[in-house]
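<derive_structure_tokens>
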Amino acid sequence: MPHILNVTVPIPETHVLITKDEYDELIGYSLDPVWNMSDLKKKLKIASDETIKDRLLFHPRFEKELRAQGIVHYPDENFNRWRFNARKMNKFVDEHFNEIYKERIK
């Protein structure tokens, strides 16, 4: 038979207790809504545009999903700059972190 221990922990007036989902949502709201390439470099801690393009933006495993979900604006003749939906890209990077940092098979 398992033992049960009831504990009371006081929470100071200066603190609140929220679920992890609520916390993640609040963190998402704290991000700027749009990132540029410099912002993505900071998130990934990768200095090279080419490395980011190779490992993430043009990687066959990710490119289709990034385009389909509207996470990335790929430069085109109308707007020749990279733009990223910050909340979606932040979540995508967190979910695919290990895959992004694996060496790409040539």
User: Anything to note?
Assistant: The chain is about 50% helix and 5% strand. The longest helix spans residues 20-30. Residues 54 and 104 are 8 Å apart (CA to CA).
